[in-house]
Amino acid sequence: MRPRPPVVLGTRGSKLALVQANACAERLRASGLKVEVRVIKTTSEHHPDLPLSVIDQRDVFTRQLDEALLRGEIDLAVHSAKDVPTEVPRGIVLAAFTKRHDPSDVLVSGEGYDVDGLQEGAVVATSSLRRRAQLLHRRPDLRIVEIRGNVDTRIRKVREGAADALVLARAGLERLGLDVPHIVIPPEIMLPAVSQGALAVATLVDHSLRSAISKALNDESTEKVVRAERAMLNALEGGCRVPVGALGRRVDGSGVWLQGVVASPDGALLYRGEAMGEEPEEVGGRLARNLLEQGAGVVLAEIREVRS
Known about the structure:
By secondary structure, this protein is of the alpha/beta class. The chain contains ten helices and 13 strands. It has helices at about 15-30, 45, 65-70, 130-140, 150-160, 170-175, 210-215, 220-235, 280-295, 295-305; strands at about 5-10, 35-40, 75-80, 90-95, 105-110, 125, 145, 165-170, 180-185, 200-205, 245-250, 255-265, 270-275. Helix 8 (about 220-235) runs parallel beside helix 9. It starts with 6 loop residues before the first strand and ends with a helix.
């Protein structure tokens, strides 16, 4: 009998993506599977200098990996869950969500400032509309500038004087083991991106190893809160490039408490809400309706109109 060929795990090629992919590969190997990690270049890497906020494509980080899955070139793809559109291509399923790291955003600066401690008119670097909107709502005096590149590159640019501070995901710093001065931004100032801190593992719906991959990698608690957050975003008809934040937590054993925010890019308008319940998709949909009733739909419609 021929030995089974290795399972091919597809990933982006950044240092962080490879760290994430290799962590998943080790867990799969521990479950008895042979694994080969394969790097696939994505849209974001083909356009490294174009601001993400103007790339009107929800699958900017995932399209090429999805295509490789559908062609049978890879068996699974590992993504940062926050980069995965709420609607995945036909034939593909998110088979697992890995145990979530701290989903918080952090403010990186040489002086260790928090948001309120930044000097008047400070320059803060981020390519995220969500981060920009919430920062400006709290501190309308700040000057927000675009920044691209992997985590190391962005930190280097700020150290070289491109900005006074930089906003990053805490999970990325932790996974890379980077020791840089930073302060966690509390959720009352900035809610994280939907499913930030978790990894999403995609396979074909009918892949023979889908169940084994899910068993090795899925964290049930993470899956429940991430599905609530993604349901909220989907009901808002938002993509990964819109100023929407969410944070779900498990409560009372099986319930989910979900906070959400939608803000205008200039920070002038901000709508917050929360919901609690047992079924993740119902909680997410209910919170989305609450935000839309407050007026969030106007903000999202204006962003869609500008991009069209």
